[in-house]
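Build the 3D complex.
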Amino acid sequence: AQSVTQPDIHITVSEGASLELRCNYSYGATPYLFWYVQSPGQGLQLLLKYFSGDTLVQGIKGFEAEFKRSQSSFNLRKPSVHWSDAAEYFCAVPSGAAGNKLTFGGGTRVLVKP
Amino acid sequence: ETGVTQSPTHLIKTRGQQVTLRCSSQSGHNTVSWYQQALGQGPQFIFQYYREEENGRGNFPPRFSGLQFPNYSSELNVNALELDDSALYLCASSFGGTGARTEAFFGQGTRLTVV
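Done.
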C-alpha cells in the first residue's frame, strides 16, 4: 500500500532562514504527492502537488518541492521563512483501490524563532 | 465560490452518546471525504461519498456512518461514542469520486471531545 513517512516531528527555524521538510514515500510506480499545511485550529490547505513531469514543483506561499525517484523523496523547501509559516505540514499520497483517499504522513511541526 | 464549511466547530459529548457532524461541500464539487485527526497525528481516512453513494472506507467500525445529500452536502454520524473518538474531524470536498488527480479542499474541522 502507498504510504508516506515524515521523519522529523518538530523543526525549529529562525525567521529568514531556509526550511526543508522531509517526506519519503513507499510506492512502486511514480506516485502522485501532495503537501498540505495546517495552521493551529484550522483545516488543511494544499501547498503544492506533483503528478508527473517537471520534478521541481512550485506552490503557494513561496514553497517548492522536489520529487527524487532515486531517493523516494518529495521534500518541501522554502528559501526564507516568515513567522506566519509556523504550522504543521503534512505530506500525503493518494491510496486505496481507486486512489480516492489520501494517506498522510505523521506531520512535521514547524516553530519559527524571531 | 463558497468553500467547505463544517458545523459545529466544537462540541462535547458523553461516552455512549451519538453525534452528527455536517459538511457543506464546495460549489461544483460532488465528492465528500471524511477524516479523523487525533491529537498529534495525521488525518486518517474514514470514508468517501460520491454522488450519494459510499465510495471507499477506511479502517473504522460500522458505528461510523455517513450520508450524502442531493446537494452533495454530507453528514458523519458516530454512535456509541468512545473516549478515543475525541479528535478533529475534517471534511474534504472534491470533484470526481476517483482518480488521484482530484484536488481535495478541506474544511476547518469539527473538534469533538468525548468525556
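The mean pLDDT of chain B is 92.
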